[in-house]
Amino acid sequence: MKVNQFDRYQFQPFIIEAIKDLGFKEPTEIQEKMIPLVLKGESAIGQSQTGTGKTHAYILPLLQKIDPKRQEVQAVITAPTRELATQIYHEILKVTEKCDHENKIMARCYIGGTDKQRTIDKLKQQPQILVGTPSRIKDLMLEQALFIHTAQTLVVDEADMMLDMGFIEDLDKVAAKMPVNLQMLVFSATIPEKLKPFLKKYMENPKYVHIDAKRASAENLQHYILPSRHRSKKQLVVDVLLQMNPYLAIVFTNTKKMADEVADYLMLKGLKVGRIHGDLNPRERKKMMKQIQDLEYQYIVATDLASRGIDIEGVSHVINYELPTDLDFYIHRVGRTARAGQSGMALTIYEISDEDALNRLEKIGIEFKHVDLKKEEGIVEIEDRNKRKNRQKQADETDKKAKTMVRKPQKVKPGYKKKMQWEIDKIKKRERKINRKK
Questions:
Q1: pLDDT surpassing 50 at residue 209
Q2: Average pLDDT across the chain, whole number
Q3: How many degrees, rounded to 5, is the angle at CA 31 between CA 331 and CA 311?
Q4: DSSP secondary structure letters along 85-107
């Protein structure tokens, strides 16, 4: 019988059972490095890309350490968005449901957009592990309904996004109420300079685990770029989506305003479209996520809120209506597809002004296929946008090489310049032949 690689951590039976149900056979790299540190109670920073399995790198060891006999908060997990907090909470429930009745672990989720008073009324019994957004946890704490001073561990998930969304102040107030010898676990795709003062305040000599991406993106993900060429980008998106007929596609825009404009245009053209962005109220966002999970939509228009942490199952295509300003978000966006061994396709509609961004993405290992949308043929491969540029570069190099190979004679005779040029042209002709054969 094949041994499950998670057995080495000597997890309690209910966790082992949950791991089997989840289909995990061996830990991912971040799980392998983080689980022992969490179990030992050490503070650590885990830096890795989305989709590397970091959620279970802290969920599993934290649940191992929870004492079901102690009816008090023992671990606090924070996330920047309600959707991500809810998702983490559901992953916790998949494990805790395996607990026997006598050793039941109480987990709760606290996010904005829910009835605060009802939550306070239910807090007569404190959860042993909780997950939520920093602002809601802070509010419940200030209402003296939630008592987190008993917790030994604080998890900060998607820390760089916490910083971007302005939650560090709330997070600071939460951390300040916790014990001095607090175990803090920070997970992030990047560690910005502005985040470092907060980390330094609460973490003394933390262990640092950095998982280098084996590839810039998933192996079974194809990257395509399509030039806009002064055509209507909104109409291009409609035509591309109809041509592809995806199982589920997410169209990414940079702003909420543009997300609404694109979604409205797609609807005008008869497509049933879902939308995810920060201007939806909590009830709308919750309803939208449920409708998406119930496969009511084939197309979703979203801002980068959906590119980090939110796991939407079955995404077959990602369309970048525009490239993100922060190119890290390109990786996050395309990471929504080609998950769990499935294949996926990411297509970016680009303009001439995007050349520099595309070059930078190519430098980190993204290999683009160049395509265009033709009326009669559909999506077809076209010449690499750099081909002409490369030909000119090659010609310049050939010219330079030929000139270095023909030297000025020591004793010049009439017509030597013409003779030298004839030699240079002869070498250039020969070099061009060689290059064509390559």
A1: yes
A2: 87
A3: 45
A4: HHHHHHHHHHHHTTS-GGGPPPE
> Structural domains in the chain?
5-210 (3.40.50.300), 221-381 (3.40.50.300), 387-437 (no CATH)
45 close to 186: Cβ distance less than 8 angstroms? yes
Query: DSSP assignment, residue 4?
Result: P
Distance CA 172, CA 359 (A): 39
User: How confident is the model at residue 283, as a pLDDT?
Assistant: 82
CA distances 52 to 105, 248, 313, Å, are 26, 22, 16
pTM above 0.90, yes or no: no
Close Cβ partners of 172 (under 8 Å, ≥ 6 residues apart)? 198, 201
d(CA 434, CA 307): 46
Number of residues in the chain: 438
Q: Which long-range contacts (CB under 8 A, 24 or more apart) does 206-209 make?
A: 206/42, 206/43, 206/44, 206/45, 207/37, 207/42, 207/43, 207/44, 207/45, 208/44, 208/45, 208/47, 209/30, 209/33, 209/34, 209/37, 209/44, 209/45, 209/46, 209/47, 209/48
pLDDT at position 1: 41
pLDDT in tens, 225-256: 999 998 999 999 999 999 999 999 999 999 99
pLDDT tens for 370-404 read 999 998 889 999 988 776 555 555 555 666 665 67
